[in-house]
Design goal:
This protein has 8 helices and 18 strands. The protein is α/β, with parallel strands linked by helices and 315 residues long. The longest helix is centred in the middle third of the chain and has 25 residues.
Length: 315
């Protein structure tokens, strides 16, 4: 059995589950690398990453480099004498970092690689209407998410699941896959498989304002998948045109209603208890919405205090 000295690299909640699993299984974590503290909220108070907060609670050594090629950081990293590096939801590493550990640097990625390489694999699997996804571990190489595969586990995406619930399930399954991967490395039993490159590999593009905007001319299925794939974060958005109001709103929860109608796409139909938007094959029935400067709310609460005019539209 190899005597492992592990450096863990990660930033958000998704990474905490894995770090916690390693600590609770008594692995020797000699250092934790995470993002620098960032100002957040109205007071611009410095905010520590979820990984830093957990690492501090366990008295682990924490490094927060702004530049991963900085000589001082490289020296600090070398001084930890790690022989294995584990990366979960962090940034791209320079070669000088990922080549440093004797037993390699491996990454946990929340997709069935080679599909959904990139920044937002959980969101895009739902947006694209996939029925399955999973987690993969692989050794890091020069490119993004292309290294030789170690282990993979597949799960079913539920038809009405959103990105939040899928994130939480993959976080737990991923932490277990990392433990299995570490056990193989510890025993010197790792067998890797090169990723298969095909023409039809799907990409997990970085989410931005453009690809989060709802196109009401799209199919009912695609709109529904986009809403749940972007919920609870960052949220699918569109512009509400209602009389003098022209507001960018976010929609977090909706249903499909297949129904014949002769309304123009984007037309809003509202009643005391229901808000729906006309699309080509029926309606998107909105259940949860957020107006600018307000908290997200269920539609009944919105309709109690907000009136829609006859010609109101979603653009």
């Amino acid at each position: 059995m190899r005597d492992l000295r592990i450096v863990f690299m990660g930033t958000p909640d998704f990474a905490v589950a894995t770090l916690k699993a390693l600590v609770e299984n008594n692995y020797n974590i000699v250092g934790v690398i995470t993002a620098p503290d960032r100002p957040a909220g109205r007071g611009r108070k410095l905010n520590e990453s979820a990984v830093k907060q957990y690492a501090k609670s366990k008295n682990l050594t924490v490094l927060q480099p702004t530049n991963l090629k900085n000589e001082d950081f490289i020296s600090e990293l070398k001084a930890l004498h790690a022989n294995l590096q584990i990366v979960v939801a962090f940034r791209m590493l320079p070669k000088v970092v990922w080549q440093m550990a004797e037993y390699g640097t491996f990454n946990l990625h929340a997709s069935l690689l080679p599909n959904y390489r990139g920044a937002a694999p959980i969101n895009w699997a739902i947006i694209n209407g996939e029925s399955k996804t999973g987690v993969s571990t692989f050794f890091i190489d020069e490119e993004i998410d292309t290294g030789d595969m170690i282990l993979q586990e597949e799960i079913t995406i539920e038809p009405d699941e959103n990105a939040g619930s899928l994130h939480d399930r993959l976080m737990e399954i991923g932490s277990k896959l990392v433990l299995s991967t570490v056990a193989l490395i510890e025993k010197g039993n790792v067998e890797t498989t090169p990723q298969k490159e095909t023409k039809n590999i799907k990409t997990a593009y970085k989410l931005n304002r453009d690809n989060c905007k709802i196109d009401w001319g799209n199919s009912i299925k695609n709109i529904y998948n986009q809403i749940r794939g972007l919920s609870p974060y960052p949220g699918a958005w569109c512009t509400l045109n209602n009389g003098d109001d022209k507001l960018d709103v976010k929609i977090y929860k909706a249903k499909k209603a297949f129904d014949d109608h002769s309304l123009k796409v984007g037309t809003i139909v509202s009643s005391k208890n229901e808000l729906k938007v006309a699309v080509t094959e029926g309606y998107i029935v909105i259940d949860e919405i957020k107006l600018p400067g307000k908290r997200s709310m269920d539609v009944k609460s919105l309709l109690n205090g907000y009136a829609f005019e006859e010609n109101a539209k979603m653009l």
